[in-house]
Description:
Blueprint: H1 2-10, H2 14-27, H3 40-46, H4 50-64, H5 77-93, H6 97-107
Helix pairs in contact: 1-2, 2-3, 4-5, 5-6
Amino acid sequence: MIKYIDFLGRKGCNKTASEFCKFLLCLDPESDPFGTLLRIDYYAIRAKNYEFLKEFCVRYAKEVYEDRKNTSILIMPNLLLTSALSKRMLDEQEGKPKEAMLSLAESFK
C-alpha cells in the first residue's frame, strides 16, 4: 500500500495519495506500522490541504495518546516544519503576509 501511495505521488495524484495516507493511519493510529506519519504531511502540503495538516498536528496526539501527558506530535521534525509551513500558507491565502512570517517565527518557540 505504501508503494502505491508513492506511485500516486509520482503520477501527480497528490490529493489521492493524501487520502490513502489518512486511510492507512486510521487503520492503526497508535502503532502506525506503515510509517504513514512520515508521509502524511508531505502529501498534504503537495495537495495544498493546509487546514487539514494544521488540525492534524493539533488533534492527533490528543486523540491517540490521550492517557499520556505532555505528548505532542510535533516532536517529529517533518511535522514540525510542515505545520509551520501550513500556517504560513494559510496566512498568505488570507492576504496577511506579514502576520504569516510572525506566526512562522512563533511556531518555533
